[in-house]
Design the sequence.
């Protein structure tokens, strides 16, 4: 468990605000211990810092009302979706109000002809894709968890498809948002491109609820490809697999997914998902395109992989086999946990320039061994992004200390390679020290000036991204 | 000629600053009339508002020095590249110092393995592509003019390739920038994706020199495709051509370029470029991919075009024929001017959701006729972006008034279709009134708060994007 400093609480303000909100929202304003704890829950080892109350909002107007009340009394307000973020994003270090947006779960419009749609923040990515399927459309961003679109927007999520389709920053056209004073704004039109003033859309994407509350998201969609095929290929070493990824990207092959699993993860999957894969590093791929196109992509990849010592290359267009492969990839987290029953898993999330991927993954593997840590690696390798998940004995203080040291070392390694300490999980509470290391104090000061300008009383998700 | 309000001048400050800069920069600080006028030049009918002096900077340190001197004395400072912007971006309504960045023209590094490079702002896109060619790489953004990468970044430029490769916002990985107090920051690492704090890269892309001076740009590059083919197809009406574009995008065909030219432009090109095209609306296309891939794309497009009444469809992989087609497209501006010798051409730049493209272009055509204006249309149609260029008799006051009315009508039309008044030219001085119409006062107020936070004395390119 990592302790996080609590911030000064505005007790009087919180009491007043809770009184007002209970009046307005009745049963939709909850203060019970269990609900509060659940809304401060994070999926990591960061300690729980619950809010003082949880409001279940059903409209933009209600979000604006809650923000206005909180603004009047200088009380913190924190947005909540599915609670699947990993760096303490939903914690309430100064207490305050959590606003649960999961009842705002409507797909408001789908413009199939324009390949876009407008949704409320509580729509999950799976719900959206189920909704879209009949129209031959899909939304490609896939962070693993069935996260809410609002949360994915707020944390600039990405995942397995980002190598082809980009991250949330590339797939949000426009936002409706409630600013710190309760004003509702819209950041952009529905045009596919625009040069109309500052890019407020991109400023809010990834701002982790610290600059505004996102109440509607207009997303770019994709047509479901004519053909999809999947492939897997084994490699003698993580380095060889990484080199195959580098060759694929440098070749310009438009892979839709190219995921790296190290030998330990493959071993875990064989046990957990009843597979029979060679227990060496593995790449899983997906190709999207026309029938001829995906066949050509698979063939080209097979050639590139062979040059790096790849073996057992097998491509398949069968839906059943494809689903089996990708289900295994999605099971990786649970499979890894099963490697060490009862352990805590702590995810890291570095991303380096692709030319450094083999070096970074290899160094990561060696350092984990040296520090006597269990740290299986999966990666969205086509972006240079990988996660070493530390499997830690909760009772072993020394191991926890070594894990903390390892995480710090890995973040520094990525930064030294001109990479980032967070490819897709965000800064939250956990990575604030690294933000300055990565970008410098001057850059973080500019972020602080923007925060101060848009939220002068620091009521929007305080203690995240920036100090204080 | 459109007059633009002058802003209050800080005469004492300007005098002091010029004294200091002449001391430091000698011959590289110029105050002659011709040089000043040239640096306030815009390629539109907006009047010239020259700066008081022009400094030719050669390094980030020098840019920082100039900004510090201007900050100390609250004197405006305006960045200048090739001067090809269209909305008065380089005008100096309050006087001050223009900083010419064209001597900062070095490609600082190319990381071929990572498909990225780092350049100074004065590198032009053609110079960059010449530099990259031997390594099998190219930078896809093509705004027509041989603009500087710094200017393209500052105005969020795009152009013919944006339908496939995105705009500057999608192709800038990181920036070095000098803030209003002279501090030098870097906005991001070289990782292909990151969720490390606020997206300052995207905030500065398109900020038109009003938030910072951009001194280095890290760009994503593309591998030169294995195969490129071009195609053309004629249509009976602009509406039919637009419908073919809509069908192509909705199909998900990954066209690299899909440009619309109306009958008047085709007629102009036949005269200017000695071509023999049917004088009806025309689509010009380019396909990038493998040999088999481009052939398949061309075939699919041919099928879609035929359904919309397309005729004379011809695809070619011949470099010579391709160059001839695209040279004609690039000559369109000059060809249009030749339609009415001695005229002024004033470009509009609306962008609408693709489903509204046919309606918008048709309405534009009809309104121009109704208002007795000559307004040939070319468009980056795959993005829903098109330019009606008004060919105006400089001596005819009434025609100028009608043109102004037409521009206003067209911007309002795009906004009413949930589109934008500026797909790629920016707001500058010319489009400030429409920014509020498009996004609302609340949104523009948020932009104003950011401007105030990062440039409290309003010295960075005052009078652009925002009021004042």
Sequence:
């Amino acid at each position: 468990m990592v302790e996080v400093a609590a911030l000064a609480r505005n007790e009087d303000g919180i009491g007043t605000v809770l009184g007002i909100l209970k009046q307005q929202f009745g049963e939709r304003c909850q203060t019970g211990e269990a609900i509060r704890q659940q809304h401060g829950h994070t999926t990591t080892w960061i300690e729980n810092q619950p809010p003082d109350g949880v409001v279940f909002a059903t409209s933009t107007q209600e979000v604006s009302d809650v923000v206005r009340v909180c603004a009047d009394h200088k009380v913190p307000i924190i947005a909540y979706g599915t609670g699947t973020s990993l760096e303490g994003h939903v914690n309430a270090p100064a207490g305050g109000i959590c606003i649960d947006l999961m009842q705002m779960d409507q797909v408001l419009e789908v413009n199939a002809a324009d390949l876009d749609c407008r949704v409320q923040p509580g729509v999950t990515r799976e719900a959206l894709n189920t909704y879209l399927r009949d129209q031959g459309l899909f939304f490609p961003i896939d962070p693993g968890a069935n996260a809410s679109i609002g949360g994915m927007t707020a944390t600039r999520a990405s995942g397995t498809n980002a190598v082809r389709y980009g991250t949330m920053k590339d797939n949000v056209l426009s936002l409706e948002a409630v600013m710190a004073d309760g004003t509702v704004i819209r950041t952009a039109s529905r045009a596919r491109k625009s040069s109309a003033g500052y890019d407020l859309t991109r400023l809010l994407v990834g701002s982790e609820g610290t600059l505004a509350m996102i109440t509607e998201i207009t997303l770019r969609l994709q047509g479901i490809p004519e053909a999809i095929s999947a492939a897997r290929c084994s490699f003698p070493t993580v380095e060889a697999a990484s080199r195959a990824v580098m060759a694929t990207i440098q070749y310009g092959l438009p892979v839709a997914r190219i995921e790296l699993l190290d030998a330990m993860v493959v071993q875990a999957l064989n046990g957990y998902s009843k597979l029979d894969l060679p227990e060496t590093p593995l790449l899983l791929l997906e190709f999207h395109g026309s029938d001829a196109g995906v066949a050509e992509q698979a063939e080209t990849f097979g050639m590139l992989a062979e040059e790096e010592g790849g073996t057992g290359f097998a491509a398949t267009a069968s839906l059943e086999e494809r689903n089996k492969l990708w289900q295994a990839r999605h099971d990786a987290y649970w499979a890894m946990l099963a490697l060490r029953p009862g352990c805590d898993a702590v995810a890291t999330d570095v991303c380096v320039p692709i030319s450094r991927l083999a070096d970074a993954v290899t160094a990561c593997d060696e350092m984990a061994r040296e520090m006597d840590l269990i740290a299986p690696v999966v990666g969205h390798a086509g972006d240079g992004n990988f996660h070493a998940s530390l499997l830690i004995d909760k009772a072993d203080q020394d191991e926890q200390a070594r894990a903390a040291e390892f995480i710090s070392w890995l973040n520094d390694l990525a930064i030294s390679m001109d990479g980032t300490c967070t490819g897709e999980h965000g800064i939250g509470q956990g990575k604030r020290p690294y933000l300055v290391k990565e970008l410098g104090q001057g850059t973080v000061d500019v972020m602080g000036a923007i925060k101060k300008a848009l939220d002068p009383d620091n009521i929007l998700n305080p203690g995240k991204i920036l100090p204080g």
Remarks:
- The mean pLDDT of chain A is 95.
